[in-house]
Each structure stands twice: as structure tokens, then as C-alpha cells.
Amino acid sequence: MSKRTVLIVEDEPGIADVVRQYLEKDGYRVEVSGDGARAVDEFARLRPDLVLLDLMLPGLDGFEVCRRIRGQGSTPVIMLTARDEETDKLVGLELGADDYITKPFSPREVVARVRAVLRRAQAGPAPGDRVHVHDLEIDPARFEATRAGIPLDLTPTEFRLLTALARSPGRAFTRLQLIDQVQGYAFEGYERTVDAHVKNLRQKLEPDPRHPRYIVTVHGVGYRLAEALDD
Ligand code: CA
Rounded mean pLDDT of the chain? Predict the structure, then answer.
């Protein structure tokens, strides 16, 4: 199997170098870009398997880079942020980032997150049968989801979220249960990150995202996939 490529977008050479070393030791091919605008070009050229994206960059900031990368497909993105502000993280997640890491971080933590995100993205959800509920078809093996036969362009995180909900229509999941399904590892417990992902998913899934029919909010609990679609 050929090496997986990670694109590090980071303008601090010291940080980029140490992360590169750890990732290379773990068997990844690594490219580094220190400028936001150039990183978007590099992304198009390299087609990496994953992007580690710093927030504060010269050229374009990390949010804008994320938006442009998202315009080109569903490659997993992990945001690196020096700011420990929840709003930054939520904006990143709303732009479709799959995870975020707050600086200062240990390079080992980065490697663990990269592995986890790639495992989720490339192995897909637990091997399993296709899920068919209402007019949704989800094929975990092929990582494809459609509604009424029309493909949904979901990020890996959104895909896992939808799959988890759709496997048990009518079951109310707490946000923590959904974090567990989606992240696949113990996480800081930012329950609101689930809300950000659900919001994105609804934008893509729901005919009218302001009045969701598929993914229903269960007040005081979390979310469930509707057992029946009301008209
Ligand atoms: Ca920076």
C-alpha cells in the first residue's frame, strides 16, 4: 500500500518540522506549505489524504483555506489553533473541519489524531451492511450516501454521524454518544461540536434545513433520525 500523504499548512517552521518528523516516522509522506494561498494550490496538486491546517497564516487564513479545500472534495482537515476559543473551533467545524488540535500540542497527539481521522475517513464506519431508511441509502463500504437517489457530498465526520443515526431510526442519541460514534476515541467533550456537525449535515440533507424532518432535535437529550417523515 502506498504511503498516505499529509499536507501540513503551517507558517512556523519549528512546529512544521517537528510534526513532519513524527509523521514521517509513523510512515506518512509529508509536504509542508507555509502560506495560505500557496497551500490551496499545493492541495490541488498533491491531492493529499489529510490536511493539518494552522489557523493563523500569511496569505489566506486557515478558515478561508479550509473553505476552498472543502470546495474541492471531502479530504479530512484537522485544524491547528493557537487560540483556545470555542468559537474558533466551532467556526472551523462549521466549515467542515473534521477535528481540531489546540496549541501547544504534543507531536504524539497530532500523530494519534491523524491516524484516527484517516481511519475514520478511509476505513469508513464499522464494516456493515448498507443502511436504507426513508429515501436515504447509505453504503459504508463505498462511503456513499444518497437521498432520493441524489448523492450527498458529506465530510467523513458528517457521514459517520448520519450513519450512526440512520442505523437506529427513532433512537435518541445524546451528544456524547454521537461524539463517541463520530470521533471513535475519548474526546474533550465539546458537546456543541456535535451541534455544528448536525447543522452542516442538515444543510446538505434536509430539503428545508430550518425545519428538519430527517434529523430531529430531542430537547434536553440530543438528536435522532425521524422514524417517520411528516409532511
Ligand atoms: Ca501560524
Answer: 86
CATH code linked to domain 131-225: 1.10.10.10
Q: How far, in Å, from the CA of 114 to the mean position of ligand 1?
A: 19
* Cα–ligand 1 centroid distance for 19 (angstroms): 14
Distance 80 CA to ligand 1 centre (A): 9
Domain boundaries, the chain: 5-122, 131-225
Give me the CATH code for the 5-122 domain, please: 3.40.50.2300
Q: Assign 3-state DSSP to the chain and report helix, strand, coil percentages, each to 5.
A: 40, 20, 40
Which residues lie at CB < 5 A from ion ligand 1? 11, 54, 56
Angle at 188 between CA 196 and CA 81, to 5 degrees: 70
Distance from Cα 56 to the centre of ligand 1, integer Å = 4
Domains 5-122 and 131-225 share a fold: no
CB 52 within 8 A of CB 10: yes
Between 50 and 117, the higher pLDDT residue:
50
pLDDT in tens, 112-165: 989 888 877 765 445 567 889 999 999 988 889 999 999 999 988 899 899 989
pTM above 0.70, yes or no: no
Ligand 1 center–CA 201 separation, angstroms: 29
What is d(CA 166, CA 139) in angstroms, rounded to the nearest whole number?
Answer: 11
- Distance from the alpha carbon of residue 61 to the mean position of ligand 1, in angstroms: 9
